[in-house]
Amino acid sequence: MAINNVALIGGTGTLGAPVLKALKASEFNISVLNRQTSKSVYPKTKVITIPDDLDVDDVAQALRENQIDALIITIAGSHVESQKKLIDAAFKGGVKRVMPAEFGSCDSADDKTNEILPLMKGKKVVREYLLSLEGKERGNGEGNLTWTSLVTGHFFDYGLTCGLLKFDVKGRKAYILDGGNIKFSGSNLDFIGKAVIKILEKPDQSANKLLYVHSNHVTQLEVLAALEKVTGDKFERIDQKSQGELDVARPKMLDGDGEAREEVVAVWGVVASDWKEKEGFANTILGLEEEDLEQTIKRVIAEL
Q1: Distance (Å, whole) CA 89 – CA 133
Q2: CDD domains from the xrefs (predicted)?
Q3: Percent of the chain beyond pLDDT 90?
Q4: 5-151+188-212: CATH, from 3.30.43.10, 3.40.50.960, 3.40.50.720, 1.10.390.10
Q5: Were 123 and a residue from 75, 108, 209, 287 both cysteine, which residue would form a disulfide, CB within 3.0 to 4.6 Å?
């Protein structure tokens, strides 16, 4: 399978922007799908305008006319129906590979995770929808639609700036869960962009797979030590029990509290997101190497 023409939707988001940057620096021909009334602007990038309602036939026609081989979806993973429409359009439009909006902190293939964090169930629903199309024949002699779902762990560098890893870097505070020695997986945003490129460059090896990657495999205590070394400051350490934090945040989350949902994601992404020994861990297959923790933190501190 050869992939040449790649389209991205969601190219201005926290993840979409760095993925688009990586795509534009690659050998692929890149287009961005942009809804009709969107205010997003993409300088020096081919833009394919699509209807706001993602009408399947119209989007399929746009994909076919532009000979799109792969569609990368970086809209919010909670937008299940929108993703299904885009997948249907990709199927009808002759697209060879879809990457759904799986990317993120927690593992949607894990039953315990889906129980703790119902948000993840939507990602599982989308993946199961892709599975249902896997063997479905298309006309015109076109091959089957294939997919790759990528689980990245916490967005590591971004997470250090916004409390996602349980550190308040500006306030010099560290919220340490369960002693701080739990290994967890996280990925810097530009590393995720690299992973997407590698998947597209190895379409046969990555077809119809749920893959896990990370740029950092660390404990909170290792992150704390690196933060204190780089900043030269002592951080206030606040010890927390993960179960206690979940017991407080989950009921609020289930009542629709967005901040509480972020807290559950933050906690669970530290205590239950170690990909190193997981089936589907793909750093080696994709030729990706872990990145230096101290260098990452130096960069984050400089940008802050």
Answers
A1: 12
A2: PCBER_SDR_a
A3: 94
A4: 3.40.50.720
A5: 108
